[in-house]
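During the second year of the project, the team shifted from modelling isolated chains to modelling whole assemblies. The rationale, set out in the original proposal, was that interfaces cannot be judged from single-chain predictions alone. As a representative example for this report, we include one of the complexes processed in the last quarter. Its constituent sequences, exactly as entered into the pipeline, are reproduced here:
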Amino acid sequence: AQTVTQSQPEMSVQEAETVTLSCTYDTSESDYYLFWYKQPPSRQMILVIRQEAYKQQNATENRFSVNFQKAAKSFSLKISDSQLGDAAMYFCAGGNRDDKIIFGKGTRLHILP
Amino acid sequence: GAVVSQHPSWVICKSGTSVKIECRSLDFQATTMFWYRQFPKQSLMLMATSNEGSKATYEQGVEKDKFLINHASLTLSTLTVTSAHPEDSSFYICSARQALSNQPQHFGDGTRLSIL
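Output from the structure prediction step:
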């Protein structure tokens, strides 16, 4: 993706509840990937979920799922049954198969006990 | 899984010195490695793309002579910050793509660089 926009700088959710993080993107590529990365205080980049643009089915990884709306260029992340360990910075990102990844500005997620 | 090792994890040095950061793919061959920079509370900004055996491709606004990148083997890329100044203080992260693979990039744990 050539641009990635995350409009929510911070969000909070009660433990065990569900939260959705928003992301929009723009690209001229036909073959691309979209990603959600988690960056905890350790600053390690952890891949949460990956979506291939040609696949219509939304990717899921346990409590994490995405809502990929290709026509609207939207790629939101839903976290179900939020846990304290989910607190982190979340980056939406996009790129084509062989090239660089462009990151959004991030959303800081707080989990309220 | 694929592991990318970055060294050192934290370095403090005096202004005017040069600092080298290593990025190694431990259990796979990486034809392409990427170098990112992250300022506090900001996103990752791509600095350059490093291809094994060829010159790195730098993003607009990144000084080639300031940030020297070498990718001499399929498992090692280095970033050298030359004549470092306090404004170069940042968090530097590398990532590596496995050759001939559909796998996503694998990230190192980053290097915190502090220039006094």
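Chain B has no helices and eleven strands. Chain B touches chain A through 20 residues (CB under 8 Å).
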